[in-house]
Amino acid sequence: MSTVADQQDIKREKILEAAYQQFLHYGYSKTTMNEIAGALSMSKALLYYYFPDKSQLYIAVTRKLANEYLNTLKDNLAKIKDLRDAIVFQIDTHHNFIVNNYNFFDFIRLNEQSLPDQIWEIVDEIRQSEMQLLGDVMIAEANRGKIRIVENPGEIVSLLLDALNGVRVAAMGHKKNIFPKKEYLDEIHQKRLILVDIFVRGLKN
Amino acid sequence: MSTVADQQDIKREKILEAAYQQFLHYGYSKTTMNEIAGALSMSKALLYYYFPDKSQLYIAVTRKLANEYLNTLKDNLAKIKDLRDAIVFQIDTHHNFIVNNYNFFDFIRLNEQSLPDQIWEIVDEIRQSEMQLLGDVMIAEANRGKIRIVENPGEIVSLLLDALNGVRVAAMGHKKNIFPKKEYLDEIHQKRLILVDIFVRGLKN
DNA sequence: TATTTGATAATTTTGTTAAAAAAGTCAGGA
DNA sequence: TCCTGACTTTTTTAACAAAATTATCAAATA
User: For residue B175, what are the domain limits?
Assistant: First the structure.
C-alpha cells in the first residue's frame, strides 16, 4: 500500500529526473524552471513546493548523481584485490562520470567562485570515499606483502588522485575547449595507466 | 663605443622593464600605455615606435621572463647528477617563478580562451626545455644504472611534470582564490617531494 | 490537511545608448 | 632615425529601460 510519503518521494524523483535531463541538455543557466515544469506537465509553483529554489534543485540532482557514482565504486572495488586493477577501475568510472555529465557541470564550471557550499561538500564527500575505498585496497595489498607499508595510506592515495587529475588537466592544454575532446580521452587514459604503473611500482619493496 | 643598435636595445630594455613593473603591479588590463610611457617620461607614441601594440609588448616581456627562468634551470641542472635533486630544483624554481610573477600572468589567466598564439609558443617552449633538461638527467641516471632504462624519457618526464602540476591544482581546491595561498605553499612542496620520491623509486630496478 | 495552480511581485539578465577612457595613428619637429 | 602633440578609432563603463526569469502567495482542489 502506498503512503503519502511514498507518493511525495515518487514525485520528487520525477522532478529530479526531469531536472537532470534539462540541466544535462541545456546547462544550468539555460534551463528555466518553466521548462522543467513544462516537461513534467505541472505548474512551476509546484516545483517550489518540493524544492526551495533552483539551486537547491540542482544540488539535489547532483547529490543523486554522486550517490550513483559512489555506489558503482563501492560495489566493484570491494571485489578487486589487485591495487593496480582497483585504481584503473576508479579511473575509468570517474572519467565516464565526468564525460557523460559534462554539460550538467557547467554550473560548477562557470560559477567556480561563488557556489553554494553544498556543492563542495558533495565533491569532498566523493573524494573522501574514493580515498577510503582505494586506501582499503592499498592496506590489504600491504598486509599481503605486495607493497611496502606506508604510515598514511589516505595521504598516498590522495596524492595519486591529484597526480592523475594533473594528467587530465595537462591534456586539456591551451586548446579552445575547457574539456578534453574525444580524441584526447584515449591519450589521457594511456598516460594514466603508465603513471599508475610507475606509482604502484614505487610503492613496492 | 656604443652603436645605434646598442642604444635601441638599451631603450627597448628600459621599456620592457617599466612595462614589466606596471603589469606586475596592476595586471595587464589595468595598466595603460600612457602609464608605462609616463613611468619612463616618454610619449606614448614612442612606445608604438618600439612595439607594434600593447599585447606584443606584453609578449616581449613574457619572453624575457621565460628566458631568465630557463637560464636558471640550464645553469643549475647541468651540475646536478641525482635525478631526485634535479627534479626538486626544477619544482622550486618553477614555483618561485609563478609566485613571484603571479599578477603579471593575469592576462593569461583571464583571457584563457582568446590569447595570441605566441603566448602558447612560449609556454610550449618552456615545457619542451624542462623535458629536455630533466630527460638528460634521467638518461644519465639510467646509464649509471641508478634507474631502469625507459624507451621514451621525454614522455616519462612529461608525465611527472603533469602529475606535479596536479598537486598544485588540487591544493588550490575550491577555495575563493585561484592561486594557492602562502599557507599552502609548504604543503604543496611537501606533497611534491613525496610524489617525486615514489615516482623516482618507481623507475628503479 | 496536503497538494496544486494562476496571478503577481521581485529579481536578474539583456539590450541600448551616451559618455569616458584607452588604444592606436600620423604629420611634422629635432 | 628618434620622438612628440594632437588626432582618430576602438574599447570600456554607466545608466537605464525592457524582457526574461525566479520566487511568492492567496485561493482552489482533492
Answer: 54-203
Q: pLDDT digits over B140-159, tens only?
A: 999 999 999 988 999 999 99
Residue numbers in B near A170 (CB within 8 A)? 161-162, 165-166
CB A80 within 8 Å of CB A86: yes
Residues in chain A closer than 8 A to B161 (CB atoms): 170
A126: nearest Cα among A93, A170, A79, A99: A93
Q: Phi/psi of residue A144, each to 5°?
A: -80, 0
Rounded to two decimals, the pTM is: 0.88
Do the Cβ atoms of A50 and A15 come closer than 8 Å? Answer: yes
So what's the pLDDT on residue B179? 66
Q: Using one digit for the tens of pLDDT, what is the confidence trace for B63-112?
A: 999 999 999 999 999 999 999 999 999 999 998 998 899 899 988 877 77
Distances (CA, A) of A61 to A1, A18, A34, B147: 27, 10, 17, 49
Q: Which residues of chain A have pLDDT under 50?
A: 176
Same domain, A168 and A74: yes
DSSP alpha helix (H) spans, chain B: 4-26, 33-40, 44-50, 54-77, 83-100, 106-110, 117-143, 153-172, 182-203
Return the CATH number at B16. 1.10.10.60
Q: How many structural domains is chain B composed of? A: 2
Q: B90 and B170: one domain?
A: yes
What pLDDT is stored for residue A12 in this prediction? 96
Give nucleotides in strand D with any atom < 7 A to a protein C-beta: 1-6, 12, 20-26
- The per-residue pLDDT for range B25-75, each reduced to its tens digit, is 999 999 999 999 999 999 999 999 999 999 999 999 999 999 999 999 999
Strand D closer than 7 A to residue B32 Cβ: no
One-letter identity of residue B15:
I
